[in-house]
Please model this.
Amino acid sequence: MSDQRKQTLNSLQERFGSKIEMEERSPKRIYLLADKADVPDVIRFMFQEQGARLCTASGVDGRWGVEILYHFSYDGQNMIVTLRTLVEKPFLKIDSVANFLPAANWIEREIHEMFGVDFIGHPDLRRLLLPDDWPEGEYPYRRS
Amino acid sequence: MSYSVPIGPYHPLLEEPEFFTLKVEGERVVDMDVRIGYNHRGIEKIAQSKTWDQDTFLVERVCGICSTSHPIAYVNAVEDLLGLEIPERAKYIRSVVGELERIHSHLLWAGLAGHFIGYNTVFMWAWKYREIVLDLFEHITGNRNHYAMMRVGGVRRDILKEDIPDFLAGMDELNKKNDMLTKAVLDDPVLHARLKGVGVLSKEDAIAYGVLGPTARGSGYDIDVRRDEPYAAYDLVDWDVIVLPDGDVFAKAAVRLLENAESVKIINQCLKRLQSMPEGDFFIPVEDFPVGEGIGHHEAPRGEVFHYVRSDGSNCPIRHKIRAPTFQNLPSFKASCIGETVADVTLVTASIDPCYCCTERLIQVDDADGNKLYDGQDLIRLSQEKTERIRKQMKG
Model:
C-alpha cells in the first residue's frame, strides 16, 4: 500500500518539480501548494493519469485572498491529496477545471457565489444555492 | 418542437424543494436543468460560531435521515486534526450506529421507491421492517432519530452487555425479513421489466461526475470509504462491498437491498466483540484544539460525506466545509436522464436517493403556455400507470 502511495507522490513530483510544494502531515493526508496558473495542469494529471477522484473543493477567505483547496481521494491507496492555491485579492480569478472534470462543476459554482471567485472558462456560472434576488457583490462566506 | 416542463420547487417524491426544467420533445426528455438552494440554511457559516463540541450536534441537523453520518465524518476530521486514536470500544459502537442507520435509510428508500412505481406492498413491508431498526435505536441511544452518539474522541454512550442479546435477536429478525424482501424484489418479473435499462449511468460517466455510494457501485464504480480508508471498526470485521455493473435503476435498488445484509453482518460481528471484550473507556477527553486542519469522511447511506475543518487554536473552527453525497450524485442526471421519458425521469432522479436538506436540496408540470398542470400526485400516477401497463402486457 505505502509503496503505491510513494510511487504516486514521486510521479507527481517528477512531473511538476518545483511547481508544487509537498507537505506530508500524515501518510494518509498530503497537502500540495501550487501557483494558481499551474492548478489546471496538476488537476488534469491527477484526474486523468492517476485516477484520483475529486471529493470537493473548499474555499477559505483570508486577508490576502481566497484560498481554494481541491481535495482528491486516491481510493485504492487510502490517501487524500489536497491541492492548495491562493487566488489573490482584489482580482479573484482562476481557470476553471469543470470542462474536463464535470465533478468540479457545482463546487466551482458554489465558490463563485459564496466567495466571489471567477472561474474563467466555466460552462455555466449561474447561481446554485443563493436566491435570485440576493444582492450582487455580497458574498456570504467572506470573512469581512 | 420542444417544450420546457418546469417541475418544482416541490419534489413529488421526496417532499423536499428543488426545481427541475425538463426540455421535452413529445415524451422524450432532450435536456434538463436543476435549480437548488430553497433549503439553504448556512450551516457552514453557523459552524464557525459554535465550539468544537457543539458542532458535533449542529452537523447532526444537516440531515434527518442520515443524522449520524455527518457527525461521524466531522469527528473523523477533528480527530485527524488532533492526530487522535480512539478506544477500540468506541470504534465498534461507531460502526454499529453507522450501519444501523444505513439499513434504516435503505429500507426507507426501498419503501418510497416501491410506492412511486405502484408497488404499495413493498412500501408497507419495508417501512414495517424499518420499525425494528428504529426500536433498536431507541433502546441504545434513547432516540429513534438524531441519536447524538458521537463526540470528539469517542462516543457518548456505551452499549451495555445486558442489552446485546436482545439486540442480536432483533438483528436476526431483521435479517430474515430483509432477506425475504430482497428476494421478492429481485425476482419480480414486472420490476425487471419496469426498472432494467432505465436511466443508465455508464461507469465512465460515474467517474467523470465523481458520483458516490450506491449510485457509483450500481454503475460498476468500485468505491467505498469504509474499505478504502478504514475508520471506526470497518477494518476489524469481515464484510463485502456490493458492486453491480449495469448502471440502471434496478442495479441501484439491488445494491441497496444487498447492502442491508452486509450491514447486518457488520453489526453482528461488532456486537459479539463488544460482548466478549472487557468493559472500558469509550471516549478520550479532549481539551485543547491545536492550530491546523483536518479532513474526515464517512460512507453514508447515499455515499461519501466529506468534512474539512481548519483551526486557529481557538475553541471554534475558523472554516468548516461540508460536502454531502447528493452534491456529487445529482449533477449526473445530465448523463442518466437525457433520452428517457417523463414518467421515467421521476424514477431516475429518485434512484440516486437525493437528499436536499443535505445538499443544501419535483413538483408541478405545465406546458410552454402554462395552461396544463401536473402536480406531484400526477407524476406518481404517470409512473404507477406505466408499471400497470407493463403488468397487464405480461399477463396478456
Notes: The first strand of chain A starts at residue 20 and ends at 26. Chain A has a mean pLDDT of 92.
